[in-house]
């Protein structure tokens, strides 16, 4: 039996604002907390007209301030965009304000294109320093040593869980040798999921932070009262995903019937194959089978729907049906 958590991209719906998106995120987090989900994570994306969580630490603080018990964190912070000390200070501040509730997931991708990376004043080669930057960041969360001149305030000596995120074997291997928990982006990049999971578990080395491997996998869930309603709602995610792959990101689209080319449909089918769509019973059964097959230690679920009511209903349906099946424990 494993815990369930929520991934939210703070989608800016077509015709709405970033403020609307962040208010929707808070509403969803409060709802997730009431249902007993363990974590609520937001992610860093820049220059994206459909995502409001670019200033991820600020958005996390907004959500954490509106909730009481659910863990709130980054899934993730794209470390090549930031100095490790600045990240340690930001998340040290969050942990100071909301003790025992803050998670820090780190990604190696920039989360933006080259032009945006230049606007962020980052070196495009900074991803090559990711292992060293992770080690430096972890150091800033340790207690300062005598003679140490640079340390994070707040941050030093605080227990902020640090995760490595990825969609490749690189991050799986790095998480293993550094003894950190690992989250794989199977909700949009599933091709290497099984290989990465096996590599992480086989090569894991215990650390002061983690004694045994702890792997989280991610899926999407879209629940409707009927199969047709769910399939219609899923067209928002399909449009969003194809627009990204075309290099023309938009606000999160209204559900509408779309005819895809054969290559586009094949791309959707392959990369979004762990998007479970249908009635609550069907989605719960699919997720339960996924858990049984792949044995994650925790499951993170995205609910990428245009309607806030449908997002709330999807979370409620997952919690209720999965608890009824006794396949997982929401804790």
UniProtKB/TrEMBL annotation:
GO terms for cellular component: cytosol. It holds the Pfam family Bac_luciferase. GO terms for molecular function: oxidoreductase activity, acting on paired donors, with incorporation or reduction of molecular oxygen. Residues 6-289 form the Luciferase-like domain. SUPFAM superfamilies: Bacterial luciferase-like. InterPro entries: Bact_Lucif_Oxidored, CmoO-like, Luciferase-like_dom, Luciferase-like_sf. To bacterial alkanal monooxygenase alpha and beta chains. This is Luciferase-like monooxygenase. It comes from Acetobacter tropicalis.
């Amino acid at each position: 039996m494993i815990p369930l958590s929520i991934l939210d991209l703070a989608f800016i719906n077509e015709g709405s604002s970033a403020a609307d998106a962040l208010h929707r995120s808070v509403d969803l987090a409060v709802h997730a907390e009431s249902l007993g989900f363990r974590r609520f994570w937001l992610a860093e994306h820049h220059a994206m007209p459909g995502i409001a969580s670019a200033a991820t630490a600020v958005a996390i603080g907004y959500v954490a301030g509106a909730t009481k018990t659910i863990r709130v964190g980054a899934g993730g912070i794209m470390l090549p965009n930031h100095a490790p000390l600045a990240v340690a200070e930001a998340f040290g501040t969050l942990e100071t304000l909301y003790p025992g509730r803050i998670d820090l997931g780190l990604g190696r991708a920039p989360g933006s294109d080259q032009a945006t990376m230049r606007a962020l004043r980052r070196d495009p080669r900074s991803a090559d320093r990711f292992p060293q930057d992770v080690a430096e960041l972890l150091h800033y969360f340790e207690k300062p040593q005598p003679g140490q001149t640079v340390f994070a305030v707040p941050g030093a000596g605080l227990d902020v869980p640090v995760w490595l995120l990825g969609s490749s074997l690189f991050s799986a291997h790095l998480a293993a040798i550094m003894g950190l928990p690992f989250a794989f982006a199977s909700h949009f990049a599933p091709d290497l999921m099984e290989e990465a999971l096996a590599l992480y578990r086989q090569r894991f080395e215990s650390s002061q932070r983690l004694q045994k491997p702890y792997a989280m996998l991610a899926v999407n869930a879209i629940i409707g009262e009927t199969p047709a309603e769910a399939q219609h709602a899923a067209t928002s995610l399909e449009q969003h995903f194809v627009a990204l792959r075309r290099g023309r990101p938009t606000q999160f689209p209204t559900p509408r019937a779309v005819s895809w080319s054969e290559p586009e449909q094949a791309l959707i089918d392959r990369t979004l194959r762990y998007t479970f769509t249908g009635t609550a019973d069907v989605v719960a059964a699919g997720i339960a089978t996924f858990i049984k097959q792949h044995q994650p230690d925790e499951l993170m679920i995205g609910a990428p729907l245009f309607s806030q009511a449908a997002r709330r209903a999807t979370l409620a349906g997952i919690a209720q049906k999965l608890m009824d099946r006794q396949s997982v424990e929401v804790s």
